[in-house]
Write a structure and sequence with these properties.
Strand content: 25-35%
Order of helices and strands: EEEEHHEEEEHEEEHHH
Number of strands: 11
Largest sheet: 4 strands, mixed
Shape: flat
Number of helices: 6
Distance between the termini: 40 Å
Helix content: 25-40%
Structural class: alpha/beta
Length: 238
């Protein structure tokens, strides 16, 4: 149970509004609520000037956290498609849906756009399904190329590739059967990210778990894997 507020005040930190609360606590605590309001809890024996000095020492951190909260959020598992653009290997490209005599459901990747061809009118749901098919096809093709190239280097062999959307994983490996699974959305990320996942999953054919030996295998074949892992986490197709 939180302690009772003894007194409270409002401070200004170079344009930032700070809600100051004095309570029967031992330590000073600074937090930012989901909507962006800033609260600072301080021991009742601390002066306002001491609180102000503490705030000034934390100003850069505060502004960084506030900026992060204001940035659009992307939830893993969502399809990066706004109706007008698609993402392919880290690039945002215009998506043109064109009525054509070409086979329904075919697409063409150009230097600066992706053309989707159809013979009958598409509703939004059908467009999303078309785009997901596009992502799967692109990832399956490039993923298979990378798997074949890397398994020769690593001395292992995969038995099959499945591409589908996942909410919590970028890839997985069935070490018993040698089958590899890749998250459809990897087609939207830079190709360096896909290559990292390919090496990661193939390494499981040598070491099933995430032991130090496993990471040593990944390190041996892809020394910059940590950089790529950070890219995978930080890139947002918005």
């Amino acid at each position: 149970m939180s302690s009772r507020i003894i007194r409270q005040n409002v401070l200004n930190l170079h344009g930032l509004t700070i809600n100051l609360q004095f309570k029967l606590v031992k330590n000073i605590t600074l937090r930012i609520k989901e909507e962006g309001s800033i609260f600072l809890t301080a021991p009742i024996g601390m002066s306002v000037s001491e609180v102000q000095r503490f705030l000034e020492s934390r100003e850069q951190w505060l502004r960084q956290k506030l900026q992060q909260k204001q940035e659009p959020k992307y939830s893993m598992g969502e399809l990066p498609f706004d109706g007008q653009h698609v993402w392919l290997w880290g690039r945002r490209l215009p998506a043109h849906f064109l009525l054509s005599s070409k086979k329904h459901g075919t697409y063409e990747v150009q230097a600066d756009a992706v053309n989707f061809y159809y013979r009958s009118e598409l509703n939004n749901e059908a467009k999303c399904a078309f785009v997901e098919f596009f992502y799967k096809q692109e990832l399956a093709g490039r993923g298979e190329q990378l798997l074949q190239a890397w398994e020769k280097k690593m001395g292992v062999r995969h038995t099959g590739l499945k591409v589908h959307r996942m909410k919590t994983r970028w890839g997985s490996c069935n070490v018993r059967t040698g089958s590899i699974n890749l998250n459809t959305l990897l087609a939207c990320w830079p190709q360096e990210c896909l290559e990292y996942i390919v090496v990661h999953e193939l390494a499981h054919l040598q070491e099933a778990n995430h032991s130090p030996r496993f990471h040593a295998i990944v390190e041996r074949y892809l020394p910059e894997w940590r950089k790529r892992k950070k890219m995978l986490a930080s890139f947002k197709p918005l």
